[in-house]
Each structure stands twice: as C-alpha cells, then as structure tokens.
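Input/output pair, single chain:
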Amino acid sequence: MRDITKVTRIQRTESAPDRSRLFEIASEQGGYFTTGQARTCGYSRALLSHHVKSGMFIRVRRGLYRFREYPSSSREDVLTAWMAVGRDSSVVSHESALDILGLSDIIPNVVHLTVPRSRRNLPSFPGIKVHTTIRPIRKGDTVIRDGIIVTSAMRSILDAAEGGTAPEQIEMAVTQAIERGLIISQRLQEEADKRGRRISKLIADSLHRMKQ
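Output:
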C-alpha cells in the first residue's frame, strides 16, 4: 500500500509518462533507452527507480535501461557503450565495426567508438576506446546493423589500419570485403592514399596479394 501511495505521489508531481513513446524509442535500440530519453517521455529518476524495482525496466548500467519484454542483445556491450557515449554523436568503428560486419576474425578487447574531435574531452568509460577524428562521418561512411550505427566496410578497414590493427587482419578484411562486394578495390586504394604512406602501402600490398 505504501509503494502504491508513493508512486501516486510521484505521478502527481510530473506529467503523465508516455510509455508508448518510450517503447517506440527503445524498439529502435534493441529495447534499450537512456535516462535522458525517458525524461523526454515524462519519466523522472524516481519513477524510473520504481519501475526497476517492479521489474518493468531493467537497469543495465548507470543511465541506461532496457524494457523487460526485450531479451538482452548479443551485442549488448557494443550497444550500451554506444548509447553511453552518445548515439547521436558517435559511431561504432575500428575493430568493433570489423567484428560486427564480419570482416576478419578479430575479437576486440574493448568497444571502439569514433566521435568528432570537438568531443575529445569526454570522460573515460571502462571497456570503451573513444577515437576522435577531424574527418567528417559522411552519409556513405556508415551502415546500420542490429540498430547500431557502424562505420562502413571501407571506413572501418582504413580506420583500423590507421589505429594499428595487425596487418594480417587488415589484409583479411580487405579480401573478405571485396569478395562480398562491400568495397571496390580502386576506390579503397584511392581513400587509402589520403591516409598517408603507411596506410597506402598496407592496402596496396593487401590488394596485390589478392591477385596472386
């Protein structure tokens, strides 16, 4: 009875929460939503806490929740990291993107995300490697996989190469991407040439070995 009274008091002090709208937002994110997104739908922290206790919402990490109706995602570590850093201003990239795209057999030990250089002062997050870039993330530089915005095959390969991923993994990713029709070799080389001599040579060598 006390809990019911408490919830009623909470609801009277705020606008009626819009569960349908929050569910709609979460449905585009594998069932997950942030505290900020919940707030825009009329959920205060107190009301969120109540629904966590009642089992309606599951608290995944600080500031991030999931509707109970949705099972945990196989990409939960990536999805929650992306949302924690900011889904509107970050993309999954480098080795994490290669993994999601199924290019090479690399297993990232952290979640790699890229943000604009203007966000370089972000706080550190455990298990997350944030890369900053001055290269704009163009429309053709991203794809969506399982509701997550991921850098395209070409951008992922070049970013990973520039970030120090092992050459054999880059070569494998290049081969698989070309065989699957995800990139065109000439275009890849042209973009690699813009990344400096080391990256240009690495991609050229990878393409050359493909022809042998």
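The chain has two domains: 2-67, 76-211. The chain has ten helices and eight strands.
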